[in-house]
């Protein structure tokens, strides 16, 4: 008992209550997240239109699907924990089981908190993106965090679960579903960002004749610069290929001017003197 780390400032007998409270708190956070997303969806339809509305709806729909997947994950995780406690506590009470397995219990609490926190952060990031005050990258990072915390929760539950447990199989399936939905959020966010940036770049409405002419000249300058850079890269690619042939042994002779030429394939039974290199 003395060697056990004092990582939590609570009594061992209070761990069981804390697990239940934390899981309930996580469920409430997810329900609140779903409600907030629905409110954001309604607000987006009233305040935006066209491409921006399409992008916002796609992102918010993917966030809603992710929240539903997380909600199912938490429910399944709660059922698995009850199964673990019932099968492992024997004659002991639920509180005694959690106290006896305090390290495992603390890991479970930490994982549950991480899932709830990730869901809350995702909704806040989505809210800022819809209001055009946040960055699309925030949504991507939050999605990755949710996937990581989900893996943490599954790992914590798997430690004590029976391999043949149906609840464990369901939890692992829920985890895969969460990862898939998180990937969908990332994909919809990236495509939406590209769509918005492309629209902003190509929107010339409201420009005066002088402004349009200036933009046209600046674009011509960029085109010439890119063409020159492309030509330089082509020359570089050619030189790299020549050097590749030399190092690979594809050349017999290298002329004085440094240009490598592939050696002709020799005929069988005939020893032919290699041709004299000619300057171009």
UniProtKB/TrEMBL annotation:
Mention any Pfam family matching this sequence.
Answer: I_LWEQ
GO BP terms = actin filament organization; clathrin coat assembly; endocytosis
Q: Which GO terms describe its cellular component?
A: clathrin-coated vesicle; cortical actin cytoskeleton
The keyword Electron transport appears for this protein? no
I/LWEQ domain residues are 7-248
Q: Which UniProt keywords apply?
A: Coiled coil, Cytoplasm
Q: Mind telling me which Gene3D superfamilies this protein's record contains?
A: I/LWEQ domain (1.20.1410.10)
Q: Which SUPFAM superfamilies match?
A: I/LWEQ domain
**What GO terms are given for molecular function?**
actin filament binding; clathrin adaptor activity; clathrin light chain binding; phosphatidylinositol-3,4-bisphosphate binding; phosphatidylinositol-3,5-bisphosphate binding
Q: Which residues form a coiled coil?
A: 207-243
Q: What is this protein called?
A: HIP1R protein
- Its gene is Hip1r
């Amino acid at each position: 008992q003395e060697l056990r780390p004092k990582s939590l400032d609570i009594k061992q007998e209070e761990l069981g209550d804390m697990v239940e409270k934390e899981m309930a708190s996580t469920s409430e956070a997810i329900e609140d997240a779903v409600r907030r997303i629905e409110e954001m969806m309604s607000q987006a339809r009233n305040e935006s239109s066209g491409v921006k509305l399409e992008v916002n709806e796609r992102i918010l729909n993917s966030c809603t699907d992710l929240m539903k997947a997380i909600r199912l994950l938490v429910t399944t995780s709660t059922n698995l924990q009850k199964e673990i406690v019932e099968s492992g506590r024997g004659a002991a009470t639920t509180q005694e089981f959690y106290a006896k397995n305090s390290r495992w219990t603390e890991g479970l609490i930490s994982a549950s908190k991480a899932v709830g926190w990730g869901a809350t952060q995702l909704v806040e990031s989505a809210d800022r993106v819809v209001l055009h005050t946040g960055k699309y990258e925030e949504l991507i990072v939050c999605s990755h965090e949710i996937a990581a915390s989900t893996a943490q929760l599954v790992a914590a539950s798997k430690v004590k679960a029976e391999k043949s447990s149906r609840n464990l199989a369901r939890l692992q399936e829920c985890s895969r579903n969460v990862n898939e939905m998180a990937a969908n959020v990332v994909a919809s966010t990236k495509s939406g960002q590209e769509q918005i940036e492309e629209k902003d770049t190509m929107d010339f409405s409201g420009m005066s004749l002088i402004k349009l002419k200036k933009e046209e000249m600046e674009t011509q300058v960029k085109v010439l610069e890119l063409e020159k850079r492309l030509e330089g890269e082509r020359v570089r690619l050619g030189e790299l290929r020549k050097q590749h042939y030399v190092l690979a042994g594809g050349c017999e002779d290298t002329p004085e001017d440094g240009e490598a030429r592939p050696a002709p394939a020799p005929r069988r039974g005939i020893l032919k003197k290699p041709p004299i290199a000619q300057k171009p």
